[in-house]
Automatic annotation (TrEMBL):
This is adenosine deaminase. Keywords: Hydrolase, Metal-binding, Zinc. Pfam families: A_deaminase (PF00962). PANTHER family: ADENOSINE DEAMINASE. GO terms for molecular function: adenosine deaminase activity; metal ion binding. Belongs to the metallo-dependent hydrolases superfamily. Adenosine and AMP deaminases family. Residues 20-366 form the Adenosine deaminase domain. It comes from the Bacteria. One of its GO terms (cellular component) is cytosol. The keyword Metal-binding applies. Its EC number is 3.5.4.4. The keyword Hydrolase applies.
Length: 374
């Protein structure tokens, strides 16, 4: 984890933390504060591996460096265990938004799976309402403190389960009460979007926006299913889209590539990639290209004109923030302020908001980056 404040700065002392940001891929159960886990676990008599917040944070990092998605996801058993009551969900959602504000986020989408929070008697609708209560409390607190943030819920169905149509109906039911979109998540390999075609058909008839986890733990076929079966407007991660990019030759003048049909489709239609660099390293999503951030195909996709966005995926599991992810990418690929603004404008244009709101968001980002330029 980056500890030095200097590593969060660009040349000329530009503070990345102060820049306006858009967070599109940020899991609620992946961003619970370690101290909150300890306190809520104690209240329900649930054992935790560490009783000190710093040590628990380190435990998450160590467990999540397994190099594969399946083991990475096992850590969520701990965070979801303390998210089974209205009080717990509301507190965690409130703190989550507070952390977004501290990270400079001006628009955030929080994704989470209500079906995983029914263990203590809550209904699906009650879980969504509890999370919305916490979001609204934090927004109100931010406004009183002089900050401004918009937040929407992304309701997620677990791709290995059989409740996606029910969860899709839940999302649409709350579309005017905080929910802005739908997602499927969980173990990707062996569970393509096509298994949930009924849910996606329903969402299409309701004109409800969809993002799909694809191209993280599986390849081009999974991405294709997300686009075809899921009608995905964004790709959750999507990093393995780079498998559909072929390097034809490389010389002193540059690298020459050709795009396969899926990559070409994603590029031509400006389908946003919700890339999460640190998480992609932890889960082994970029293993075929290397094990360091400089090996991540983020820059290749950017140079080829894809609509890259920067995301944290899971703040607690990766010990990270958007500020940190932007800093790491700037260091790895020598990005400057203009590059970082491109990624934030990409995210603003891909947000599940009405057009007019996206245009206002773009103006907020432009103004914030212009101010940083002095």
């Amino acid at each position: 984890m980056v500890n030095s404040a200097n590593e969060y700065q660009l040349p000329r002392g530009i503070d990345i933390a102060s820049l306006p940001k858009v967070s599109l891929h940020d899991h609620l159960d992946g961003g619970v504060r370690p101290q909150t886990i300890i306190e809520l676990a104690d209240a329900i008599g649930f054992d935790v591996p560490e009783s000190d917040a710093d040590r628990l944070a380190d435990w998450f990092l160590n467990q999540c460096d397994a190099g594969n998605l399946v083991d990475y996801l096992k850590t969520f058993d701990l965070s979801t265990a303390v998210m089974q009551t209205k009080e717990g969900l509301t507190r965690i959602a409130r703190e989550f938004v507070e952390d977004l504000v501290l990270d400079g986020v001006v628009y955030g989408e929080i994704r989470w799976a209500p079906e995983q929070h029914l263990g203590r008697g809550l209904s699906l609708d009650e879980t969504v309402e509890a999370v919305q209560d916490g979001i609204e409390q934090a927004i109100d607190d931010a406004e009183r403190a002089g900050s401004s943030i918009l937040v929407g819920q992304l309701i997620t169905a677990m791709r290995h389960a059989d409740r996606s149509l029910e969860i899709a109906e839940l999302a649409v039911r709350h579309r005017d009460r905080g929910v802005v979109g739908f997602d499927i998540a969980g173990a990707e390999a062996g569970f393509p979007a096509s298994r949930h075609r009924l849910a996606f058909d329903y969402l299409a008839t309701e004109h409800f926006p969809v993002t799909v986890h694809a191209g993280e733990a599986d390849g081009i076929d999974s991405i294709n299913s997300a686009l075809f079966d899921g009608r995905a407007l964004r790709l959750g991660h999507g990093v393995r889209l780079a498998e559909d990019v072929t390097v034809e030759r490389s010389d002193d003048d540059g690298i020459y590539v050709s795009l396969g049909p899926v990559a070409q489709w994603v590029k031509d239609r400006e389908i946003a990639l919700e890339l999460s660099p640190s998480s992609n390293l932890q889960t082994g999503a970029i293993a075929q290209w290397g094990t360091d951030l400089v090996d991540h195909p983020f820059d290749l996709l950017y140079q080829l004109g894809f609509k890259n966005t920067i995301n944290v995926d899971n703040r607690t599991m990766s010990g990270t923030s958007l500020t940190r992810e932007m800093s790491l990418l700037a260091d790895a690929f020598a990005y400057d302020l203009d590059d970082l603004e491109v990624f934030q404008q990409n995210a603003a244009s891909a947000a599940f908001l009405p057009l007019e709101d996206r245009e206002e968001l773009a103006e907020v980002i432009a103004a914030g980056f212009d101010a940083a330029r002095g």
